[in-house]
Amino acid sequence: MGLALQQARAAMQQGEVPVGAVVVCDDRVVAVGHNCPVGGHDPSAHAEMQALRAAAQVLGNYRLPECELYVTLEPCVMCAGAIMHARIRRVVYGAADPKTGACGSVVDLFAEPRLNHHAEVIGGVMRDECAGILQTFFSERRAAARARRLAQPFVAGEAADASSVPPSESSN
Ligand SMILES: [Zn+2]
C-alpha cells in the first residue's frame, strides 16, 4: 500500500485526484498505476484500470487470477467490473469512498451473488494515509479556487465594490 500511496502522490503532482494502485503477483510487483483521467482525456483512466492494463501487458494475459490489487481508494463500479473481468484474486483498498465506492460504500458488487466472480476484498488498510492525501488535495484545490475568486476584481482592474454590476450581468 505504501507503493500505491507513492503512485497517488505522482497523480497529485500532475494535478489529478491522488489515487494510486499496484498489482502484485507471488509477492512481486507486476505493475503500478495512478489516476490520470484529466491529463489523459480518458474517463476510464482510474488508477486501478491503469495498473490492470499494465499488469495484463506484462503477464501477457487478460486474466490475472493469481494477482492482488492494492489501491488507495475503494474501487468504483467501473473498476470493480474490470477487477472481475481480470479475475483478480484479492483486492486491498485504503480509504472508503462514500460517493462512488462499489465495495460496500454505495453498492457492494463483490457481494452480489448474481455476478460470478467474488474476489476477496479487504478495506481500511492504511486508511488514514490514503484518505489524508485526498483531503490535502481537495483542501488545496478549494483554497486555490478561493484565491482566484478573491484576486478577480484586481485582475479586472476594478476595486472590490459590492455595488458594481459584474460585466456578465450588465449585458442583459
Ligand atoms: Zn474507478
Indicate the topology.
Blueprint: H1 2-13, E1 20-25, E2 28-34, H2 47-59, E3 67-73, H3 77-85, E4 90-95, E5 120-122, H4 127-155, H5 167-170
Parallel strand pairs: 3-4, 4-5
Antiparallel strand pairs: 1-2, 1-3
Helix pairs in contact: 1-4
Zinc ion (ZN) is lined by residues 46, 48, 75-76, 78-79.
Low-confidence stretches: 162-172
Count of individual beta strands: 5
**Regarding CATH, which class?**
Alpha Beta
Q: Major sheet: order of its strands?
A: 2-1-3-4-5
Mean pLDDT metric: 91
**If you compute it from the alpha carbons, what radius of gyration comes out, rounded to the nearest whole angstrom?**
20 Å
* Proportion of strand residues: 15-25%
Total separate domains:
1
Order of helices and strands: HEEHEHEEHH
Any key phrases for this structure?
172 residues; alpha/beta; Cytidine Deaminase, domain 2; five-stranded mixed sheet; 5 helices; 5 strands; 39% helix; 17% strand; disordered C terminus; binds zinc ion; MafB19-deam; tRNA-specific adenosine-34 deaminase activity; metal-binding
